[in-house]
Amino acid sequence: MHNYNEELIKKILEILSKQDIWKIPVGVSNRHLHISKEDLQVLFGENYELTKMKDLNQPGEFAAEETLIIKGPKGKIEDIRILGPVRENTQIEIALSDGFKLGVKPQVRESGKIKNTPEVELIGPKGKIVKREGLISALRHIHMPTEIGNLLELKDRELVDVEIEGIRKAVLGNVLIRISDNYRLEMHVDTDEANACCLKNGDTVKIKKQ
Question: Is residue 155 part of a domain?
Fold first, then answer.
């Protein structure tokens, strides 16, 4: 009987531990952009380098002091924060509602999938450039360390549902899992999604196990 109780307690603790793992902290992403070295030189001057303002939750990433203006066919949005470090390609990430002000229709895309996306103009202190592609509304996603992905039996690029508690309780579908040894556990949603579900930075959500 003694051994049976020990095994039962062990199983209960394992279940509770795994339930906690399924809880994911939330990071709300305001409109921002990632910039290529080439575009940075055009907009800010030759040999210009980004100035770190603060580190972000994902290792190696930071919010820069520098901001830009995005201009579309109908209007513009100022003070768009650049996130570093520089990337191979410039990518502008806005909420779908921002598209109304700019006069464009951003597509919901996974990061890096910028082919056939709307054209906008970027305006900096030293120049401006028309980006023929690169404007997206980011597909909601979860950055997940490899060890947690293994524990939860999830694969990189898998799509899951996420449950949100609170006054605007909801289930968000098509949440992309992104797994890497370099990631810190965090779900990213844009401001439209956060406002719709009353989410803020630091809240937790739960992956709905299939």
Answer: yes
E strand segments, 38-158: 52-55, 62-71, 76-87, 91-93, 107-109, 120-123, 128-131, 135-138, 141-145
Cα dihedral sign, 34-128-51-53: negative
Residue type for position 149: G
CA distance 82 to 62: 9
The per-residue pLDDT of the chain, averaged, comes to 92
Distance CA 179, CA 207 (A): 15
Number of H helices, E strands in the chain: 5, 15
Burial of 60 from C-beta contacts in 10 A (0-12 / 13-18 / 19+): exposed
Q: HSE (CB half, 13 Å, CA atoms) of 210?
A: 9
Q: Are 116 and 195 part of one and the same domain? A: no
* Range 44-49 average pLDDT: 97
Tokens of 130: 């028309």
Clarify whether residues 126 and 49 are in a common domain.
Answer: yes
Q: Give the largest CA-CA distance in the chain.
A: 78
